[in-house]
Amino acid sequence: MADGDEDLPRDAKIVKSLLKSMGVENYEPRVIHQFLELWYRYVVDVLTDAQVYSEHASKAAIDCDDVKLAIQSKVNFSFSQPPAREVLLELARNRNKIPLPKSIAGPGIPLPPEEDTLISPNYQLAIPKKQTAQAAEETEENEESIDPTNPPQEGRTDLTQQTPQRVSFPLAAKRPK
Fold it and tell me: According to CATH, what is the number of the domain 9-89?
């Protein structure tokens, strides 16, 4: 073993030999400590579950069956098996029956239709309509013919005359210089 292996605990030596057997030659020394922490945490979780199973079965102590059950429950909840090859092939056949959407032909990267992209207009501005010259004259005439007993209210506007016009602007890809 290497020079610093004598002062390592037995578990650290085992982790180091496992890494060497897997062909891992270069690693940081902290890797051994991280594997040890993972290893200890896993063992504590399994033994805690085994103790719960043992208490549930009204046993005085944990036995081999409790540990096996705890490990199996960890495996069932931690790892999942991939689906069978036949299932994947059937899914691929069904998915490939649907043709891809047509793309915009042009120079550069092909893109989907503009309505399916995120660069379409995404806001609207409300612009009030301006009064025409004829409407302004009618307003002046109406002000002159107002009843003197009922004075006009300053700043009052007719809502039917100022219906906002909605305008959308597409976002430009390049800004003019």
Answer: 1.10.20.10
